[in-house]
């Protein structure tokens, strides 16, 4: 493996992807709701459903980008549009209002595990923003110097990052003191994430012109 070429695509992709994971979205609130109401096991199954739905979009985005990678005009246009989409996300993060994240009722331990998995899967697969997001992720990080086997490793990384991060969130939410911390600082995290995404988007646009 040529580490320099691998990192050339991996660093911007992993950074933008992780910052986006830090920002509460629809999947985050599904995790919060399920874990708060039904406990850790249901939360982990919901996280797994979300991750596998994301895996489908990751695969579709990877092969979609491969089809246009050899057409510079289309590829650069999509890269710029992807950066604009990141600016759109960053605007909403920066202007977001503080809100109540957690259900204050006691946990009711429901153990319908298949239902929890399906809930997470449907939440992610029916969100059209996920397909746009992953298409954007690959467009900003790939070029014709990066071999396909490296791109497969990027895809596996993103799937594992979603799965591990969401399970980590579930474990955090399960402890009351952590909920208080998340509630207190989540809005600040959103705003900081928005600023970093905006900076990445501007760099991408500058390098594409």
TrEMBL record:
Highest taxon listed in the record's lineage: Bacteria
Annotated membrane topology: Multi-pass membrane protein
Database matches in Pfam families: LysE
Presence of the UniProt keyword Nucleus in the record: no
One GO cellular component term noted in the UniProt record for this chain: plasma membrane
Keywords of the record: Cell membrane, Membrane, Transmembrane, Transmembrane helix
Protein name as catalogued: Lysine transporter LysE
Organism: Malaciobacter mytili LMG 24559
């Amino acid at each position: 493996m040529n580490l320099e070429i691998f990192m050339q695509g991996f660093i911007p992709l992993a950074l933008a992807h992780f910052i986006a994971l830090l920002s509460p979205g629809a999947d985050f609130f599904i995790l919060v709701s399920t874990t708060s109401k039904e406990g850790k096991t249901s939360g982990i199954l919901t996280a797994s459903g979300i991750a596998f739905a994301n895996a489908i979009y990751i695969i579709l985005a990877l092969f979609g980008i491969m089809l246009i990678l050899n057409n510079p005009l289309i590829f650069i246009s999509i890269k710029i549009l992807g950066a604009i989409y990141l600016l759109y996300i960053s605007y909403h993060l920066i202007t977001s209002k503080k809100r109540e994240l957690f259900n204050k009722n006691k946990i009711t331990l429901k153990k319908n595990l298949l239902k929890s998995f399906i809930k997470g899967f449907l939440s992610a697969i029916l969100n059209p923003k996920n397909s746009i997001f992953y298409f954007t992720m690959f467009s900003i990080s790939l070029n014709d110097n990066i071999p396909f086997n490296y791109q497969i490793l990027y895809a596996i990384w993103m799937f594992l990052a979603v799965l591990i991060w969401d399970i980590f969130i579930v474990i955090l939410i399960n402890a009351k003191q952590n909920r208080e911390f998340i509630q207190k600082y989540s809005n600040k995290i959103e705003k900081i994430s928005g600023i970093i995404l905006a900076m990445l988007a501007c760099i991408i646009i500058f390098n594409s012109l």
